Amino acid sequence: RKEVEQDPGPFNVPEGATVAFNCTYSNSASQSFFWYRQDCRKEPKLLMSVYSSGNEDGRFTAQLNRASQYISLLIRDSKLSDSATYLCVVNWPYGGSQGNLIFGKGTKLSVKP
Amino acid sequence: NAGVTQTPKFQVLKTGQSMTLQCAQDMNHNSMYWYRQDPGMGLRLIYYSASEGTTDKGEVPNGYNVSRLNKREFSLRLESAAPSQTSVYFCASSESGKATEAFFGQGTRLTVV
After folding, report:
1. Chain B partners of A100 at a C-beta cutoff of 8 Å?
2. B43 and A34: CB-CB below 8 Å?
3. pLDDT tens digits along A47-69
4. Whole-angstrom Cα distance, residue B15 to residue B21?
Protein backbone atom coordinates (compact mmCIF):
# COMPACT_ATOMS: atom_id res chain seq x y z
CA ARG A 1 0.00 0.00 0.00
CA LYS A 2 1.36 3.36 -1.00
CA GLU A 3 1.29 5.56 2.05
CA VAL A 4 1.41 9.27 2.54
CA GLU A 5 -0.05 10.08 5.92
CA GLN A 6 -1.26 13.43 7.18
CA ASP A 7 -3.20 14.66 10.18
CA PRO A 8 -6.64 15.39 8.71
CA GLY A 9 -7.36 18.25 11.09
CA PRO A 10 -9.26 20.47 10.98
CA PHE A 11 -6.86 23.03 12.33
CA ASN A 12 -8.83 26.06 13.51
CA VAL A 13 -6.50 28.99 14.18
CA PRO A 14 -6.89 32.77 14.64
CA GLU A 15 -5.48 35.23 12.15
CA GLY A 16 -1.82 35.86 12.77
CA ALA A 17 -1.17 32.43 14.27
CA THR A 18 1.63 30.12 13.24
CA VAL A 19 0.52 26.64 12.24
CA ALA A 20 2.48 23.54 11.27
CA PHE A 21 1.42 20.52 9.24
CA ASN A 22 3.22 17.22 9.24
CA CYS A 23 3.36 14.37 6.77
CA THR A 24 5.06 10.98 6.71
CA TYR A 25 5.72 8.79 3.69
CA SER A 26 6.51 5.11 3.51
CA ASN A 27 8.74 4.77 0.43
CA SER A 28 12.38 5.48 1.24
CA ALA A 29 13.12 5.67 -2.51
CA SER A 30 10.91 8.73 -2.99
CA GLN A 31 12.86 11.72 -4.28
CA SER A 32 10.33 14.44 -4.98
CA PHE A 33 8.13 16.13 -2.42
CA PHE A 34 5.50 18.81 -2.69
CA TRP A 35 2.81 20.66 -0.82
CA TYR A 36 -0.37 21.35 -2.77
CA ARG A 37 -3.25 23.57 -1.74
CA GLN A 38 -6.86 22.76 -2.52
CA ASP A 39 -9.66 25.24 -2.00
CA CYS A 40 -13.20 24.01 -1.43
CA ARG A 41 -14.67 22.50 -4.61
CA LYS A 42 -11.58 23.43 -6.62
CA GLU A 43 -8.67 21.55 -8.13
CA PRO A 44 -5.38 21.07 -6.26
CA LYS A 45 -2.64 23.56 -7.09
CA LEU A 46 1.05 23.45 -6.29
CA LEU A 47 1.95 25.53 -3.23
CA MET A 48 5.64 24.69 -3.10
CA SER A 49 8.17 21.99 -3.73
CA VAL A 50 10.13 20.65 -0.78
CA TYR A 51 13.91 20.52 -1.07
CA SER A 52 16.38 18.58 1.04
CA SER A 53 17.85 21.71 2.56
CA GLY A 54 14.44 23.13 3.39
CA ASN A 55 12.97 26.10 1.58
CA GLU A 56 10.95 29.19 2.27
CA ASP A 57 8.47 31.17 0.21
CA GLY A 58 7.26 34.23 2.05
CA ARG A 59 5.24 33.08 5.07
CA PHE A 60 5.57 29.42 4.10
CA THR A 61 8.47 27.15 5.09
CA ALA A 62 8.84 23.53 4.04
CA GLN A 63 11.20 21.02 5.63
CA LEU A 64 12.24 17.49 4.69
CA ASN A 65 13.74 14.87 6.96
CA ARG A 66 14.74 11.92 4.81
CA ALA A 67 15.97 9.80 7.70
CA SER A 68 12.57 9.97 9.37
CA GLN A 69 10.66 10.14 6.06
CA TYR A 70 8.90 13.21 7.29
CA ILE A 71 7.83 16.46 5.62
CA SER A 72 6.51 19.59 7.26
CA LEU A 73 4.88 22.86 6.25
CA LEU A 74 4.95 25.91 8.50
CA ILE A 75 2.66 28.86 7.88
CA ARG A 76 3.46 32.05 9.76
CA ASP A 77 1.16 35.01 10.31
CA SER A 78 -1.89 33.13 9.04
CA LYS A 79 -4.33 34.99 6.83
CA LEU A 80 -8.02 34.33 6.26
CA SER A 81 -7.11 33.50 2.68
CA ASP A 82 -4.91 30.61 3.88
CA SER A 83 -8.05 28.64 4.72
CA ALA A 84 -7.89 25.55 2.51
CA THR A 85 -6.88 21.91 2.53
CA TYR A 86 -3.15 21.26 2.29
CA LEU A 87 -2.05 18.10 0.52
CA CYS A 88 1.28 16.40 1.06
CA VAL A 89 2.50 14.84 -2.19
CA VAL A 90 5.34 12.38 -2.76
CA ASN A 91 6.56 10.57 -5.84
CA TRP A 92 6.42 6.77 -5.88
CA PRO A 93 9.30 5.51 -8.03
CA TYR A 94 9.06 2.31 -9.99
CA GLY A 95 11.04 0.57 -12.68
CA GLY A 96 13.84 3.11 -12.49
CA SER A 97 11.54 6.01 -13.28
CA GLN A 98 10.37 8.79 -11.02
CA GLY A 99 6.96 7.16 -10.97
CA ASN A 100 3.74 8.85 -10.07
CA LEU A 101 2.63 11.36 -7.51
CA ILE A 102 0.88 9.97 -4.44
CA PHE A 103 -1.31 12.36 -2.51
CA GLY A 104 -2.01 12.42 1.20
CA LYS A 105 -5.62 12.83 2.25
CA GLY A 106 -5.00 16.44 3.18
CA THR A 107 -5.08 18.63 6.28
CA LYS A 108 -7.87 21.15 6.51
CA LEU A 109 -6.98 24.61 7.80
CA SER A 110 -9.54 27.19 8.86
CA VAL A 111 -8.25 30.65 9.80
CA LYS A 112 -10.72 32.69 11.83
CA PRO A 113 -10.87 36.48 12.30
CA ASN B 1 -3.60 29.91 -20.79
CA ALA B 2 -6.06 26.99 -20.89
CA GLY B 3 -3.80 24.44 -19.15
CA VAL B 4 -5.85 21.30 -18.50
CA THR B 5 -9.46 21.32 -19.64
CA GLN B 6 -12.01 18.76 -18.51
CA THR B 7 -15.54 18.21 -19.68
CA PRO B 8 -18.21 17.96 -18.46
CA LYS B 9 -18.04 19.82 -15.14
CA PHE B 10 -21.13 18.08 -13.77
CA GLN B 11 -22.93 14.87 -14.71
CA VAL B 12 -25.70 12.72 -13.29
CA LEU B 13 -25.96 9.15 -14.54
CA LYS B 14 -28.30 6.30 -13.85
CA THR B 15 -26.81 3.00 -12.75
CA GLY B 16 -25.69 1.06 -15.80
CA GLN B 17 -25.31 4.03 -18.10
CA SER B 18 -22.01 4.75 -19.78
CA MET B 19 -20.14 7.98 -20.30
CA THR B 20 -16.75 9.37 -21.26
CA LEU B 21 -14.94 12.13 -19.42
CA GLN B 22 -12.79 14.21 -21.71
CA CYS B 23 -9.47 15.82 -20.86
CA ALA B 24 -7.12 17.91 -22.96
CA GLN B 25 -3.90 19.76 -22.11
CA ASP B 26 -2.04 22.38 -24.11
CA MET B 27 1.27 22.32 -22.24
CA ASN B 28 2.92 19.67 -24.42
CA HIS B 29 3.15 17.30 -21.45
CA ASN B 30 3.80 13.63 -22.11
CA SER B 31 2.29 12.32 -18.87
CA MET B 32 -1.41 12.47 -18.08
CA TYR B 33 -3.44 11.12 -15.18
CA TRP B 34 -6.95 10.47 -13.98
CA TYR B 35 -7.68 10.71 -10.24
CA ARG B 36 -10.84 10.40 -8.23
CA GLN B 37 -11.39 12.23 -4.96
CA ASP B 38 -13.80 11.04 -2.31
CA PRO B 39 -14.43 12.46 1.18
CA GLY B 40 -11.96 11.00 3.65
CA MET B 41 -10.07 9.12 0.92
CA GLY B 42 -8.02 11.81 -0.73
CA LEU B 43 -6.94 11.69 -4.35
CA ARG B 44 -6.54 8.18 -5.75
CA LEU B 45 -4.96 7.38 -9.09
CA ILE B 46 -7.24 5.54 -11.51
CA TYR B 47 -5.10 5.34 -14.66
CA TYR B 48 -2.14 7.18 -16.06
CA SER B 49 -0.40 7.55 -19.38
CA ALA B 50 3.35 8.13 -19.35
CA SER B 51 3.39 8.97 -23.05
CA GLU B 52 1.22 8.90 -26.13
CA GLY B 53 0.23 5.33 -26.89
CA THR B 54 0.76 3.94 -23.39
CA THR B 55 -1.60 3.57 -20.47
CA ASP B 56 -1.24 1.86 -17.10
CA LYS B 57 -3.45 1.05 -14.16
CA GLY B 58 -3.26 3.06 -11.00
CA GLU B 59 -4.57 2.29 -7.56
CA VAL B 60 -8.31 2.01 -8.38
CA PRO B 61 -8.77 1.02 -12.07
CA ASN B 62 -11.74 -1.33 -11.77
CA GLY B 63 -14.81 -0.15 -13.65
CA TYR B 64 -12.86 2.30 -15.82
CA ASN B 65 -11.12 2.36 -19.17
CA VAL B 66 -8.93 5.03 -20.68
CA SER B 67 -7.76 6.13 -24.09
CA ARG B 68 -4.76 8.29 -24.87
CA LEU B 69 -6.10 9.61 -28.12
CA ASN B 70 -3.03 11.73 -28.89
CA LYS B 71 -0.51 13.72 -26.92
CA ARG B 72 -3.08 16.31 -25.89
CA GLU B 73 -6.07 14.16 -24.99
CA PHE B 74 -6.69 11.49 -22.37
CA SER B 75 -10.25 10.24 -21.85
CA LEU B 76 -11.79 8.19 -19.06
CA ARG B 77 -14.73 5.91 -19.78
CA LEU B 78 -17.25 4.37 -17.43
CA GLU B 79 -18.84 1.48 -19.31
CA SER B 80 -21.55 0.67 -16.76
CA ALA B 81 -21.77 3.29 -14.04
CA ALA B 82 -22.31 2.22 -10.44
CA PRO B 83 -23.22 4.33 -7.38
CA SER B 84 -19.73 3.60 -5.98
CA GLN B 85 -18.34 5.67 -8.85
CA THR B 86 -20.01 8.81 -7.53
CA SER B 87 -17.02 11.06 -7.01
CA VAL B 88 -15.10 14.09 -8.20
CA TYR B 89 -12.77 13.20 -11.06
CA PHE B 90 -9.64 15.16 -11.83
CA CYS B 91 -7.44 14.95 -14.88
CA ALA B 92 -3.84 16.09 -14.55
CA SER B 93 -0.71 16.34 -16.65
CA SER B 94 3.02 16.70 -16.00
CA GLU B 95 6.35 16.62 -17.78
CA SER B 96 7.46 13.20 -18.88
CA GLY B 97 9.86 11.10 -16.86
CA LYS B 98 9.90 13.41 -13.89
CA ALA B 99 7.84 13.67 -10.77
CA THR B 100 7.42 17.35 -11.30
CA GLU B 101 4.46 19.57 -10.69
CA ALA B 102 1.16 18.13 -11.87
CA PHE B 103 -1.37 20.55 -13.32
CA PHE B 104 -5.01 19.73 -12.72
CA GLY B 105 -8.22 20.33 -14.57
CA GLN B 106 -11.16 21.85 -12.76
CA GLY B 107 -12.76 18.49 -12.05
CA THR B 108 -15.92 16.64 -12.99
CA ARG B 109 -18.55 16.07 -10.32
CA LEU B 110 -20.22 12.79 -11.17
CA THR B 111 -23.29 11.41 -9.39
CA VAL B 112 -24.56 7.92 -10.17
CA VAL B 113 -28.10 7.26 -8.97
Report:
1. 33, 45, 48, 58, 99
2. no
3. 999 988 889 999 999 999 999 99
4. 16
